[in-house]
Amino acid sequence: MMKRVTEPVRKSLLDVIRKNILAAGKVSYITRVVYIGEYTGTNWNIEKKMESIMEDLEADYANNSISGLFLVYPDYYIHVLEAPEDIIYRHFKLLYSNESEDCKIGKAIFLPTYHHVHQRFFMKWYHAYTVPPTLLQPLKSYELSDIQHQMSICFNKIYTLCNHISNADRDHLVPMQEVMRSLGDKLTRLYPESTLLEYLLNAESPVLLTVEKYLDIHASVPLVNLYSDIIWPAPRDLIFCAEFEKEDRKGVDLTNQRRNIR
C-alpha cells in the first residue's frame, strides 16, 4: 500500500513579506522618500502646515512610526520622510489639498527613493529653518548628464547631512533647531545650496518625477483588459464583480447562433 503524499503548504509572496517583517520586528516596511520643492509665504507658515499634517497622520496611524527631517530655506524646502508607502501617499494628498493664501506649495520633485530601509536616520519627525549657502557660479547647462550630476550632488549632501544630525542627536528631547545650531559650521558645508535646488526645480526632463504627477499616477486605476471579449463565459477567477449572477441574453443568443451555424 502506497503512502499518502501530503501536499506541501504553498507560500505566497505575502507570506514571505510577513515573515520578514516579523523577523525585523517591524509592523510594515519603511520607505525613505526625499523630495525638494518651492513655496510662497513665510517659513513659519509652511513649518506649521507640515507639522499639522504630520500630527494628523500620527493620530491616524498610531501603530506606524513616522520620522524624518523637514528642512526649510527661504522660498525652498527639503523633506526627508521615512514611513510606509500609504502614509507617504496620504501626506502628499494633504500637502496639496490644504492650500491657503498664507502658504502656497509650488513645484516639487523627487530625488532617488530608498525602499525597505534597514535603519532610519531619525527616531521622530523634525523640522528646522536655516539659510543655506549659494553657489558662486550659476548653473546654466540642462543637459541630461548635467542634471544627473547635480542631482547626485544634492542627494549625497542630504544623506550626509542626515547622517551627521542623527549621530549628534543622542538626546531626543533637544529641539532639532538647537541640535543643528550646536553643530554650527560642520553642517554649513553639507547644506544643498539654494541655487542648486532652484536649478533642479527649473529643469525640464521626463526623468524628473514631480509630486503632482505622482499623485495623478496613484490616484487613477488603469483599465486592464483581463480577458478577451470573444470568449464567453469568461473564467470565473478573472472577473471581479458578480457577472455570473446576471442573465446575459447577449451571451446566450451568441451561443445559440453558433449552434445554428453548425
UniProtKB/TrEMBL annotation:
GO terms for molecular function: blue light photoreceptor activity; FAD binding. Residues 30-128 form the BLUF domain. InterPro entries: BLUF_domain, TEX47-like. PANTHER family: TESTIS-EXPRESSED PROTEIN 47 (PTHR34035). Coiled coil: none annotated. PROSITE patterns: BLUF. It comes from the Eukaryota. Pfam families: TEX47. It comes from Tetragonisca angustula. This is BLUF domain-containing protein.
